[in-house]
From TrEMBL:
One of its GO terms (cellular component) is protein-DNA complex. This is DNA-binding transcriptional LysR family regulator. It holds the Pfam family HTH_1. PANTHER family: HTH-TYPE TRANSCRIPTIONAL REGULATOR CYNR, TRANSCRIPTIONAL DUAL REGULATOR HCAR-RELATED. InterPro entries: LysR_HTH_N, WH-like_DNA-bd_sf, WH_DNA-bd_sf.
Amino acid sequence: MDVVAACRAFVAVSGHGSFTSGAAAAGIPQSVASRRIAALEEHFGARLFDRSSRAVRLTPFGQDMLPPARRLVDLADAMADDAERARLRPLRVAVPEICPPNRLAALMTAGRRQRVHLEVRPAGPQERARLCQTLEVSAGIVAVPEGTATWRVPLGLAARNPFPAPTVFLETLRTGRAGAQARRRILIQPEDDVPHLRDLLTRAGQSVGLAPAQVTVAPSLVDAAAAALGSPDLLLCSPQQAEDFGLHWCPLAGPRLVRGYDIAAGVSEDLEQLRTILHADIARCLGAPDRRRTPIEGPTAEHRSAEEPT
């Protein structure tokens, strides 16, 4: 016997003074209400209602049992509400602050369709790692080397004018090289200020004779993009970012630079939801290409041109 359902029928019938009205209020057929109350009476070994007349009246036993029955029904309803809130608990996720707001909104919408209620907290790579470690968020999209990444985003250089070749060679940026402007900088945005990207590019620049100041970390993505838009400087970025800022993007001939991302989460269920259910939606937020269609190396046709960037 479902004691809660039986008590719900008992409370409804007693409140309306009628099996017909009480059953309708409880959203069940009258016959079901009668059976549930009869089962409850058999369970307790005493009658709850006096059925000797047309009116439905509580017996003394029924009067004593009505308050605890109401408490049980109220507790069951409260528990159902608590379970719904727990099921819909927000999954707080630290995300890269470079993710465009419209794509984050689309990610949250996709999550709701999958009954995953996301709360996103944009932050830089070091801050995301800290938020995960201190458990201020349930999960984080953290920066990792390409080899251990779930999502990979190709990086290249972006300039205000098109590039003359399908790839950029770092040695063409050397100070004093014929046709090259003095101390043309490569600007690293804070999202890429992580050792496996920053140090690799810095060492590659030094190996081909670039001045130390030619590879530098910008205070913010906006600062770096503004410099690339208003000067010959180059922005290290993804194809999506270059498109968003109206810059021309081109991959490096070397070294191969790829942003890697993975999920850090304290609960395996959260990890599974983000890595699998929302995998494609997170990829769109990060600007990661569809691996089934777009390789992460090599330029696209729209980025090829015969003009020298200035």
